[in-house]
Records
---
Amino acid sequence: MSHAADSPNPKADLKAFQKYFTDKFPKLKLKDFVNGPYSMDEGLYKQWREKEEFPPYEFALAAGKELFNKPFKNGKTFADCFPNKGIGIRQNYPTFDEKQGKVVTLELAVNQCLENNGEKPFSYTKDEMASVTAYMAFTSRGKPFNIKIPKDPRALAAFENGKRYFYTRRGQLNFSCASCHVQIPGDHIRAEVLAPALGILNAMPIYRSAWGGMGTTSRRFTSCNSQVRAVPLTPQDDEYRDLEYYLSYVSNGLPISGPGARP
């Protein structure tokens, strides 16, 4: 796998990233990685299939659809803010917005839509944000991640910054994101089976039994930082958005499976 000090080459990074995981887990199909820990453990996989008959995220889908279609005070809705009226577009986020000069995640775009229409933004970590993005992800199920890096040096810099964040150790435990999700996916930390980094964002947002509810990508990033006893960044900080950009890009081609459920 190439290192941050090498010349930036996202396409080569994607190829090396996916090859690493398919070589490490030769029995898995590429699309299976979006199932996270369930693809790593036969017992968990069986439990998950049974759980999917009555998925714990179902309540969020219903709430998200209602919020998505509920008119703002000015009469507009989320559909007025997004391409294709917001349906079947999850696979295109995060995107690099050249006008704003930064990575725009789906969560950020949802809140920009609210604020541009005079509405109060949602919390980035759960509740309404998790529900709306769950509904939007559901309309994209099966569509492959298709993250673009335009010919803009700021976009490439954002990708490289996200990659740097992913491999940088931090916190009292001195863990990087890669320590758990590249080096030892499939192994246990306490009772938890570690998910592979490949496809990890395809299932977002997720219902986690450990949370007792739904959470967003922002919540997952901040909770991971806390678990290694690092000080979490503010949700949707530049570095978190760049991290999401990097991780989503290297999962290009894998299908959206969100909303997901995790132990």
---
Amino acid sequence: MGNALFIVWRESVEAILVVSILYAWIRARGDATVTLKHLWAGVAGGVGLAAVLAVVMLGVQSQLAGNALEAFQAGIVFIAAILITQMVLWMRKHGRHMKRELEAGMARASSTGGVAAAVVAAIAVGREGAETVLFLYGLGLEQSGGALVQMFIGAGLGFALAVATAWLIQRGSRILPSRTFFRITEIVLFMLAAALLVSGAERLINMGWLPPLYEPLWDTSALLSEGSTLGNIAAAFAGYRSQPSLMAALVWFGYWAVVLVLTRRAVAMPAASTQGAR
């Protein structure tokens, strides 16, 4: 429930801020070429794209069984983890210029008519919606019965919290600066991506497609068992395992090593560009 709440909260905040930027740009422009109806049509189109993706994924899953189903689900988990990482790195690199880039895209699209501007809005919103669908699907694979219902309740609460958060960022930027919000949440997103990768690797190990190499690599179940509430939260949010295989540990540590390199590169690139421009 908690991880679904967090994912929907963070993704919805991004989507709401994108719509807010486009809304303000259209209101400031004040002509009949691009109107708010184009924006809302684009938003509806973006939500529709995400819904179609969800239907396609569930439809494909219903046609698969056995190892084919396990492989499909493991593939979606890996894609979700890669998308989370890519999204965070993209926001770190482009976040401060997102408003300017969105407005520039709308300005270019508006020269060819309101429909093109609606497509820009649909792509911007659809990207966030598609990512949310993939993330929830990856999380839902680990849930069933009442836990699955709680996951959807968490998703609903996450959206409600996102509306309040976006309002707070817009109205009270001194209280909750967007930069602070995204810096804090990106760490949790990296942890969630690591958890998804470990989960996907364990699926492949269970299928015999990956060797466990050695297990258990260690045993900390006496200190923090995955059956406890805290251990369950650590497993879901950070990929903690009390008795991990060597392969799972390599995947977890390897992911953080790659993230460290990519994060430093994402920070260094704008500085290098600035120096080059001088």
